[in-house]
Amino acid sequence: MGGHRLTDYAMSLFDKSQGSGGWVTFTSEEAVVAILFLVVTADGEIAPVEEELVVAASNRMKTLRRLSIADFNAAVWKVRDGIDGSGRDAVFAAGVKGLPAELKGTVYALAADIVFADGKATGEEIDFLRAVQEGLGVTDELATKVVEVMRLKNQG
User: Fold this and answer.
1) Tens of pLDDT along 89-114?
2) Following DSSP, what letter does each residue of 49-104 receive, concatenated?
3) Which CATH superfamily is domain 7-154 in?
4) Are 26 and 83 in contact (CB under 8 A)?
5) Mind listing the pLDDT tens digit for each residue in 4-48?
6) Which of 19, 38, 131, 142 has its Cβ near the most Cβ atoms within 10 Å?
């Protein structure tokens, strides 16, 4: 992820829920980055393990592997600028809209992994994970399975 760290953006973005800017749109790759970025910043701070998971996702996920480091950084900046200009809600809506149906379960699983990664899921993170589930149309059955696995994976 180049010389930029997600933590550099977190505090200035956390409080922004509404902005005055225009419409935000994302490619499928940018949509993944947007949703993951919103998840890691949901509680206003980014634990190092959360940042590592986003980097790992960018290296493992076929959709994000297509991005060069420069393109990944540009996507993060586009998300940041979208939050600055239009707010977190608009960026979330654009992320959901830009995400292909076949990636929705995967992105939900990545989001859950991030939420439970540091061993302390905050109320804000849980609330946002529920919003991700609803926004992506993930069934309660799948969400329950994913959350159970991620809690087990990250408890030790």
Assistant:
1) 999 999 999 999 999 999 999 999 98
2) HHHHHHHHHHHH-HHHHTS-HHHHHHHHHHHHHHHHHH-HHHHHHHHHHHS-GGGH
3) TerB-like (1.10.3680.10)
4) no
5) 444 444 434 443 334 444 578 999 999 999 999 999 888 887 778
6) 38
